[in-house]
Amino acid sequence: MKEDLYHREKNVCGKQIHLIRTGQYDEEHKKMTQDALAEALQAAGINIDRTAISRIESGERFLRDTEILVFAKILDVPINVLFSFDDDNK
């Protein structure tokens, strides 16, 4: 039976973005609010607001590859960290 793709998360990076943004990834990264992240993204030319960040982190919004690159830069992590996930995130 084919898996229903419409009931799966729309991105695999959102959970990692949330962990990094909230300081749960490691002690090096400072906590950042969704508003602060949205401001940094907008300053970098990516038009994403706080609501969109919430939807990204919960897997309800697709991410473009260009957006992922900017998230990695702003969060100061290698891009592969955003794609790191365990079996619970599949």
3D structure, described in words:
The protein is built from five helices and no strands. It has one domain (5-89): lambda repressor-like DNA-binding domains (434 Repressor (Amino-terminal Domain), Orthogonal Bundle), CATH 1.10.260. The longest helix is centred in the C-terminal third of the chain and has 11 residues, at 65-75. 22% of the residues are buried. Helix 1 (14-21) crosses helix 3 (50-57) and helix 2 crosses helix 3. It is an all-alpha fold and 90 residues long. Helix content is 46%, strand content 0%. The mean pLDDT is 89.
How big a fraction of the residues is strand? under 5%
CATH topology: 434 Repressor (Amino-terminal Domain)
Rg, rounded, reads 13 Å
Shape estimate: globular
For the record, the count of structural domains works out to 1
Superfamily at the CATH H level?
lambda repressor-like DNA-binding domains
Mean pLDDT: 89
Low-confidence stretches: none
Q: Helicity range of the residues?
A: 40-55%
Key structural traits:
434 Repressor (Amino-terminal Domain); 90 residues; mainly alpha
Produce the secondary structure layout.
Layout: H1 14-21, H2 34-43, H3 50-57, H4 65-75, H5 79-82
Please sum up the structure shown.
This protein has 5 helices and no strands.
